[in-house]
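Let us practice reading a record.
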Amino acid sequence: MGKYELFMLILLMDIIVSGWRFDGGGGYGMVDGLRMDYYYMMNCPFVEGIVKNTVNRHLQADPTLAAALVRMHFHDCFVEGCDASVLVDSTKGNTAEKDSPANLSLRGYEIIDDVKEQLENQCPGVVSCADILAMAARDAVFFAGGPVYDIPKGRKDGRRSKIEDTINLPSPTLNSSELIRMFGQRGFTAQEMVALSGAHTLGVARCSSFKHRLSNFDSTHDVDPTLDAQFAKSLSNICSGGDKSEHAFDSTKDTFDNDYYNALQRKTGVLFSDQTLYNNPRTRGIVNAYAFNQAMFFLDFQQAMVKMGLLDVKEGYNGEVRANCRIIN
């Protein structure tokens, strides 16, 4: 068998095994321009191994960075699409997304830089920062104990990163109906929104994002009535340390599991935008289902993550492959 025939056989097997994806219409379909595995196979065959090994090395040193990578991917995709705009540094003439108040707590940029440097040494100009971030988030989920899943590749890096665009990020003060509407505008169902919210099974929240629940909540309640009373006291004690004080979203902050949904059932959701998922009858059943069945959560989460990773991607001449993820070419 010649090299061409061998390549075509490998490509055909790759298409059969992983060339199908969950699409926005609720079914499955072929990814067109965003199935670049064959291109990487020929021009950067070690890309998956480099990304996974580098991510694992960093997470072994600091497991809290798993949450950081997943959050960074989400903050990238919900602003101008999955185009690595969140990685761009501000310049004298432009304040970039990463300097928005909503992004100041993002971490893990050094992991993406590390991967990018290695890939540029191996195969310069081939793998985009947007693909690196998507792969890194996927590998972080698996490292933390979550599902393993394949993602389409071929995203290009965007040429825009502006602070004002971060207004598109969901606020921690949104209620369930507002979240359903915001996610719906991007093509997600209520169930997919609840599944993606499960990423909060990893990581922590800063007091600045939930202190409004603890005093002067509304005209009739000093403390958010949907919050467990003892838990509210615990959060208040933490917030006495200042806005940057942190509390874990659930009891297993470095492990990807379904404990986040159990916390919502106990009325110990840290953010208002978390607890509201249990309070609203439209989403409560989904929360209960995921709390009862972790396998169901994992399946729905991985499908929703693949779908999120396809938001407004840049392809062809609409994007570029940055040489440095922090700088637009």
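A brief commentary: Residues 194 and 276 are 11 Å apart (CA to CA).
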